[in-house]
Structure formats: structure tokens, C-alpha cells
Amino acid sequence: MLFDKTKTANPRTILFPILVVVLVLSQTVDGAGHQVTRVHDGDTLKVRGDSGEFTIRLVGIDAPEKSKKKREPGQPFSQKATEYLAGLVLNQSVDVKECGVDRYGRILGIVVLEGTDINQEMLKMGFAEVYRGKPVKGFDLAPYFDAEREAREAKKGIWVQGLEYVSPRDWRKGLSPVGWGRTKATP
């Protein structure tokens, strides 16, 4: 017999799944009043709000990669991108519009400071490119591509490198601009 009618259900068995669902649903970052506590790099930061601390991956942009090893240089402009983002938002109260979660468990979000889309600001200043991976469903990248194009034409930030520029996506794969024959970059 699969279900014994003579036994009563254990309250813990019933309440635990309900508690888990309530906790998961309450862990949303969407909304106002999040204090930026750390800037990891040019497209990732940490915020603290009423419902906890969250890592936010700025959706729609890809900033130059920092080195994974100490004392090794990262991608050109990685440090400048990190410093610029920190200068804008570190210790500031920001709004976050949640757009999903990436494969690392980071919240994909649009960070807004005093009405300014910080993701788009990073593109305008040439400290990031539009993310070239799988786009977030329903997210309009058109204004982001416009901001990137303007920065590229003005040769701001990363775009001053011209033909030597390597997309963060290619950098992560170890590719270099040498003839763009898809050869591995040398360390």
C-alpha cells in the first residue's frame, strides 16, 4: 500500500517544502535600495539589500577580463573598466532590474543609479562591449549596440586599440588578434 490512511502526516514534512519555496521567492533583488558593497570587475558587482547580499552580473555587456592569477596582467582595459564601475557605484544605493540568473548563479541585472542605466554607461564610455553570447529572452539590446557603436566610432576606452582589440569572449577562449586566424594567444 502506497499511502497508509491510519498515519497522520508529519508537520515537518509538509512545512519544510513550503518554507523552502517562501525563502526562494523572497530572495529577489528586483527593485530599489541596494547598497553596492564590492565591484569584482567591469561587469560584476555585489549588492546588499533587505533580502540579503547578491552578486549581480550586468546583463547585456561584457567587460575586459581580469587575470585569474596574481601578478599576471589581465586583458587590456580590465583594470580601468573595474575602476570606472567602482567610481560610479561603489558604496552607492542602486536599483536593480532582475533579468534572470546565469549559469554561475549570479543575478543578471540592469543596475540603475539616479535614473542612469549603468550597464549602458559602461558601453558609452568604451569600458565594455555588448555581450555576444546567448541573449536574455525579451531583453532589447538595440540601445546597447547603439552605445557601443558610438564609443567605437569615438575610439573611447577599449576601442582605442583598433585592430589589436580582442573581445572578452575571445580572450576567455585564449584567442588573439594575430591575423585573426584563431590562433591561441601567447602568455
Account of the 3D structure:
The chain is of the alpha+beta class. The chain has five helices and eight strands, in the order αββββαβββαβαα. It has one domain (29-172): OB fold (Dihydrolipoamide Acetyltransferase, E2P). Helix 3 packs parallel to helix 4 (142-153). The longest helix is centred in the N-terminal third of the chain and has 16 residues, at 11-26. It starts with 10 loop residues before the first helix and ends in a 15-residue tail after the last helix.
Name its key features.
disordered C terminus, alpha+beta, globular, 5-stranded mixed β-barrel, 187 residues, two-stranded antiparallel ribbon, OB fold (Dihydrolipoamide Acetyltransferase, E2P)
**Overall morphology:** globular
What's the Cα radius of gyration?
A: 21 Å
Q: How do the SSEs run, as a string of H and E?
A: HEEEEHEEEHEHH
Q: What's the mean pLDDT score?
A: 84
Count of extended strands: 8
Tell me the number of structural domains: 1
Query: In CATH, what is the class?
Result: Mainly Beta
Strand content: 15-25%
